[in-house]
């Protein structure tokens, strides 16, 4: 009974803040400032969501861009990183240690923002295009090492048996290694999707076309514009701005944006959950 009670309370510790976010996002701004945060709103008010979706066409474009670059980028990154990690897991690969050190070195030292910007905009010419979300983030050194460690745990006798039957390396990789690696692939996929879905920095640095804005950057821009208008209206002489500008619900908008941004990830996560713990634990213990 005490164990069940402990885990019920522990689960509520995660659930109640999420319910609080929903409640605040549906609260009236004036009541929120007067009464404070409540687990249940005094009355339901969708004003914050109306401000967030004031330009629905741009919001839909940002959802499409974010979802497509997250899914397509994750799929492509998994293939690239797995193809890189598989040779590193083979004992007979002579340059295994050298290549592993080179990959690990990139975890410790990077070129920095300015060289990356020059490379992406002046040499690769992918600035202000969709590919800026895909190509620079195809490989992650930490994820490659996790994949390599998992591949090392797969018995090499399976590959040898396939070779005796005439299978080539790519056939072994795609038809034997990849199906057996679902836990670690799902774990890396979840990391990639979360990272790409929450990406706003790339839009800030490389993109000035509003049709290519990611969802997170668009939400941040909407909030900053709303806070600027509200602060301008508060500091201006009386009568210069209308009352609606003073009543912009910036506080409840922050929580409404949390729901808008996190909603799709809450739907996707249960599909990865059964693989997540197993894939991460195996990669950590053997590493």
Automatic annotation (TrEMBL):
- Localization annotation: Cell membrane
- Supply the Gene3D superfamilies for this chain: MetI-like (1.10.3720.10)
User: In which broad location class does this protein mainly occur, judging by the first location in its UniProt entry?
Assistant: membrane
CDD domains (alphabetical): TM_PBP2
* ABC transmembrane type-1 domain segment(s): 63-272
Write the record's keywords in alphabetical order, separated by commas: Cell membrane, Membrane, Transmembrane, Transmembrane helix, Transport
Q: Which Pfam families match?
A: BPD_transp_1
What membrane topology does the annotation report for this chain?
Multi-pass membrane protein
Transmembrane segments annotated in the record for this chain: 63-88, 100-118, 130-151, 172-194, 253-272
**PANTHER family recorded for this chain?**
ABC TRANSPORTER PERMEASE PROTEIN MG189-RELATED-RELATED, POLYGALACTURONAN_RHAMNOGALACTURONAN TRANSPORT SYSTEM PERMEASE PROTEIN YTCP
Q: Which family does it belong to?
A: Belongs to the binding-protein-dependent transport system permease family.
Name of the protein: ABC transporter permease subunit
Q: Say which species the protein is native to.
A: Paenibacillus plantarum
